[in-house]
Design a protein that fits this description.
The chain is an alpha/beta fold and 161 residues long. The chain is 33% helix and 25% strand.
Length: 161
């Protein structure tokens, strides 16, 4: 287990070898009584997931629940801890994001989860397939990360809907 602390937010996350992130005790409840926006990330690149988690840590009222590197790990984490927003890549070390979306689309428990693809694979075909499986937002990892941050900031401030 290693501890990641983001100096700019003073939020600490514990990460085990499977890249699971556990928010601190105050991460999920806010002083205003409103719950933090719960986000799960499915990304197999440590460099990318570290960059994303550092940037998400800057968004107030947002809790990163976990980082999964494989399709099966993501399913296990999602069954254990529901989230408001799922951010996933298409290509994973084991399995893939499209198959994960297909599985989730058949489960009513995930109907309200906002699904966002952040990938280098941005062809129209991938976008259409992802939309069929309930993806509401699709961002190019190389050029549209700021738009993802703005979207998540808006969700954390005003809620989803």
């Amino acid at each position: 287990m290693r501890l990641l602390e983001h100096e700019h937010t003073k939020r600490a996350y514990q990460v085990d070898a499977g890249r699971h992130v556990m928010p601190g005790p105050d991460a999920l409840s806010l002083s205003s009584g409103r719950q933090a926006l719960k986000v799960m990330l499915v990304e197999d690149s440590h460099i990318i997931s570290d960059l994303i988690s550092e940037n998400l840590a800057r968004i107030p009222k947002l809790a990163l629940l976990g980082i999964a590197e494989t399709e099966s790990e993501a399913l296990t984490m999602l069954h254990a801890q529901p989230c408001d927003v799922l951010i996933l890549d298409i290509q994973l070390r084991q399995g893939n994001g499209i198959n994960l979306l297909r599985v989730l689309s058949g489960d009513p428990a995930y109907a309200q989860t906002v699904k966002i693809v952040l990938s280098n694979h941005v062809s129209g075909t991938y976008r259409r397939i992802c939309e069929q499986y309930g993806v509401q937002f699709f961002f190019d990892k190389t050029s549209e990360f700021p738009q993802l941050q703005r979207l998540l900031s808006r969700f954390s401030e005003s809620g989803i809907g």
